[in-house]
Amino acid sequence: MPMIGVRLHGPRTLKVEQLSDPKPPGKGEVLVRVDAAGICGSDLHMYLDALIGDTKLKAPIVPGHEFAGAIISTGEEPLSEHSGLLRPGMRVAVDPAQPCGTCELCLRGHPNLCTNLHFCGLFPDGGCFCERIVVPAKTCFSLPDALDAESGALLEPLGVALHAVSLANVKPGDSAVIIGAGPIGLLILEAAKQAKMEPIFVVEQLPWRLHLAEKLGGIPIDSARTDAREKLMIQTLGRGVDVAFEAAWADQSIQLAAEMARYGGKLVLVGISRDDRLAINHSTARRKGLTILLSRRMKHTYPKAIELVESGRVNVKSIVTHRFPLVQTPEAFELNADYRDHVVKVIITNP
Ligand SMILES: [Zn+2]
Ligand SMILES: [Zn+2]
Question: How far is the CA of 283 from the centre of ligand 1 (A)?
Answer without folding.
Answer: 32
